[in-house]
Specification:
- The two termini are 26 Å apart.
- The relative contact order is 0.13.
- The protein has 275 residues and is mostly helical.
- The radius of gyration is 20 Å and the shape is globular.
- The chain folds into two domains: 62 residues, no CATH class; 181 residues, Cytochrome P450 (Cytochrome p450, Orthogonal Bundle), CATH 1.10.630.
- The C terminus is likely disordered.
- It contains 13 helices and three strands; from the N terminus they run E-H-H-E-E-H-H-H-H-H-H-H-H-H-H-H.
Length: 275
């Protein structure tokens, strides 16, 4: 080790290191390590030394350093493991180009305008008219709900008016899926009930996000149209397109909250444990 290497935390148990603690509660473990060592550190887990990066502002230089790191293979493994998504002709560079086209420059200004519109409408809709109808809720639940719904309407519904019943169902199903995502990624769904729940939630979200349902119900957006076209070029049928949309729905929600941000960091951590 050189003096510029990140702090190393081997844990108390030889060879095993922090594997047990990580397996029990990965988010809690990473939060504890962050308080102890900062945003970048190396831990020992099951005989491996894993460097963890928790500063989101440093992700781009790491991800774009393709000479040292190649995330494409791991991305495909996780896509299949979490979302059961298989793209015969996966073209990540083409997908990135579509994202840049619609999420930067003038298009970003249009998105910001749509975000503001949906935020205003949602707050107005969900604000009780009668003081007796007010209810208490945690700040996290309020923020999670609003940010999810605004993001969903902006990227998957565009300027169309919100279908409150559809939106509520998508939100509730997504919460269930998000709660199981870390276990799906690590392949640690143990009980039959957990596995059954994960599969049923995915299937319900696929139906809700199916291209036919979106175009026939909530409408569409330029980004969504462009992404669907890329999926078709990658050889994705309607079923795989719905699965890909679930991936994009999750990806666009990551980082909205501290808990979601921790789960995003897990994607870097878990790549070291993939077979």
């Amino acid at each position: 080790r050189s003096k510029n290497d990140p702090p190393l935390d081997k844990g108390l148990i030889p060879w095993l290191g922090h594997a047990l603690e990580f397996g029990q509660d990965a988010a809690k473990f990473l939060s504890r390590m962050k308080r102890k060592h900062g945003d970048i550190f190396t831990v020992r887990a099951a005989g491996r030394y894993v460097t963890v990066l928790l500063d989101p502002h440093s992700y781009d230089p790491v991800i774009h350093n393709q000479d040292s790191l190649d995330f494409h293979r791991y991305a495909q493994v996780l896509m299949e493991r979490i979302f059961l998504l298989q793209l015969p002709n996966y073209q990540p560079d083409k997908e990135k180009a579509v994202m840049k086209q619609h999420f930067l420059g003038k298009n970003l200004s249009a998105l910001n305008s749509t975000v503001s519109k949906h935020m205003h409408n949602l707050l107005k809709t969900e604000m009780p008219q009668n003081q007796k109808d007010w209810k208490e809720d945690g700040l996290f639940n309020l923020s999670y709900s609003l940010l999810f719904k605004v993001g969903y309407l902006t990227l998957f519904a565009g300027e169309q008016s919100s279908d409150s019943s559809h939106l509520a169902v998508v939100y509730e199903e997504f919460k269930k899926f998000d709660g199981l995502l870390t276990k799906l990624a690590r392949g640690t769904l143990k009980s039959a009930d957990e596995k059954k729940t994960a599969q049923s939630v995915r299937q319900r979200l696929w139906r809700l996000l199916a291209p036919a349902a979106l175009t026939g119900g909530l409408g569409s957006t330029p980004w969504l149209d462009g992404y669907r076209q890329v999926l078709k070029e990658e050889g994705a049928d309607d079923e795989m397109q719905a699965r890909a949309l679930l991936l994009q729905l999750w990806a666009t929600q990551v980082g909205q909250t501290r808990e979601c941000s921790v789960r995003r960091n897990l994607m870097f951590f878990m790549r070291s444990f993939l077979p």
